[in-house]
Each structure stands twice: as structure tokens, then as C-alpha cells.
Amino acid sequence: MPRLTHISGDGRAQMVDVSGKAMSARTAVAVGKIRLRGETLDLISKDQIAKGNVFATARLAGIQAAKQTAHLIPLCHTLPLSDVKVDVVTSTEGAEVKCMAQTIAQTGVEMEALVGVTVALLTIYDMCKAVDKEMQIYCVRLIEKTKTTVAVSLCKTHPARTKASQRGVADRTTATTNRSRTKQK
To answer: Per the structure, how many domains does the chain have?
Structure first.
């Protein structure tokens, strides 16, 4: 059996050192479902849930949660998320939530996608619990995880910005040189 990377040689929990890993473009997609009664779906579609717009709130909660993953899961690395999308699709049995998280980092972003989808589902549950006592959250899982090694930067600098930046460096160099000459006199 492979050794668990979050467990040290003496059995203590530890954060994995990713400093030696290359920066990679990483994407993860997680999904989960919530079973809702037809009457509840009808109230949601008519925006008649007392707490407000259920799916809009769930989307925002999922995005916010994905951004806070390292605060919730003790050994997760803090990641600079470049994109998080939360989608909610209804069916006759309830709703399916999908969360996609994206980053350029040295470790994966699957926990952020899983936390995002889970909190979105919990938000739907919280907002509907007064009218539906039969709700069930189920089938939360990671469905996709990708990794593409990248160069130092994926960003293209606009030519005008590059020239302005180069001029700024030249201006600072000239100013420093002029000040040095003034001090020498």
C-alpha cells in the first residue's frame, strides 16, 4: 500500500511540502445532488422561499466556500484561485450542483471544488428546511481533475504595457545614475 503523504514517519499529521513541484494549471470539477420534493422545487422556481433566491445564494455560497477551503480543511494549502464556477441544474427529483475550480499552483484544486459543491448543497438545504423535511444530500464526488505544466507565466503582456514598463525601468535607472553623479561632486 502506498504511504500517505499527509502522515509523517512517526504517524503525525503533516502538511505536504509542495515547494519542489512545478507550477501547473490545474482544474477540478465536483458534483453533488440534493433530493427535493416537487412542491419545494415549485416554490424555488417561483422565488417563494422565505429566505430568498435559493440557487443564486447557493452559487455565491459555493464560490465563497471554495475560496475558504484552506481555513476549513486543516492540511490544505492556500491556493490562488483563478476561477470558480458553481452551476445548479434542476430535475424532477431535485437539483444537481457542479463546482469547477481552477488555479495555477503546485498542488491540486480538487478540495476547493468539493468544498464548493458541498457548501452550495448545504445552502440549498438550509434555505429550504422550513418547507421540506425530506431533503437528502447525496452523491458528492470529484468527476474531473486535470493538470498541465506551465511556464513561468500564462499571461501575455500587451505591447504598450511592455514598452511603458521598459521606459519606467529606464527612467528609474537614469534617475539613480543622475543622483549618484550629484552625490559624487
So the answer is: 2
